[in-house]
Amino acid sequence: MSKKVWSQFFALVLMASLLVACGSTPEPAVPPEPAALKITGSVSQEMGWAEEEVRAMETMDAESTNKQGETETYTGVSLNTLLDMAGPAADATTVTFVADDGNTAEMTLDELQACVNCIVSFRNQGGFSIVAPGFSSNVQVKGVIEIQVK
pTM here? Predict the structure, then answer.
């Protein structure tokens, strides 16, 4: 074969390879490392988000009473929306909130799923807190970085 035929053949193979690569199924998104917030444990797919990604999600407000007895309004993302993205397993029963300082708090998955006003709120200094109106202050975890489904 002549050089011209070989170069045309090579160009055709290269173009075909590029087209096949473009049509292939993309890999699932890999959570950012380190993720600012993640859901792990007994879920269909563990999830992780950068802070900017969580802040870009649809938000809602929730009112909750602080330790001083004052009612405050917090803005954040529904905990149920985040849980739905991860898909808790049918046999999961508990959720543990893990803070950046190592503190943890638990509540039942049923309680959380029944709480339409429970959110991951945005903190002014960055990061997130759990706001769970009507639940004990122990569940209101500041600096939450992980939600473990068990």
Answer: 0.77
